[in-house]
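Good day; I would like, with your permission, to put a structural problem before you. A protein sequence and the structure tokens that stand for its backbone fold form the material at issue. Thank you for your consideration; the sequence and its tokens are set out here:
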Amino acid sequence: LAVRTSTVMCCSKEEISSQKIPERRIQEYSYTSPSCTHKAALVKLRTGRTTCVDPEQSWFQQYLKKQKKPRSTSQ
């Protein structure tokens, strides 16, 4: 799916999905290199597949906010 050039992962405009991915399916994410033509987030799914998403999508922004919240500890 994504193009790998000398260990830099880039996504073409056509590969960047606008489809919402359920949070439970996301294993991890990273961002494409600044040297890439298109800014994208590389989302690794629990199935092992990696997909490119627009990091400005509202669902992805909400996902990021949830990831940054500190976990509350119950006593």
